[in-house]
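Record type: monomer structure entry
Structure origin: computed from sequence
Chain ID: A
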Amino acid sequence: MAKPSTKKSSGRPATRRARKTSSPGGRVSSAASRSLAAIPVEVLAAELKRRRSELPKLEARAKALRTELAAVESRIALISGSAPATAVQARVQPVRNAPKRAASSGARGARRMNGKPTLAERILAQLRSHAGPMSPRAIAEGLSKELGREVNQSFLVHISVTLRKLVNGGLVAQPARAQYVAKDVPSEPSR
């Protein structure tokens, strides 16, 4: 005679539970799940076709990212002073599929999309209109009226960094500490 079971029945039919194992990728797979061999060939072919159709988009994105990386590296070189601005501009080629962004005053040196001059262009114009060397504070005070911006530490740093880029690019000379003059304007000793 069979011995009656002491386990409670859950009301479900008795099935063998799948044994869970850990795969190399860290995923848990079960013996009850479908194996690759159990998937119809048509489904696998459709998935392969779908993935291959994504390839041109991924390649275009990779090309855009490489171009963006080259632009970032050239800006780093420009800021650090290791390469002149003209050499940096020649190396960076725009990508047709790259997302459209507003032009910055960095390595390209072009006007922004709104048609207004960049800070570097405004600084050069101010240095050219002034007779002698100017300090970053004097430049900031002149530009603050034009830009409607107050002269604070952040603005002075922005002016100083831009002046350093212009000095490294050969457009501005620095005859003395904290004194800048445009290269085409003769420098006079400051009093």
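Annotation 1: DSSP finds five helices and four strands in the chain.
Annotation 2: Residues 122 and 186 are 19 Å apart (CA to CA).
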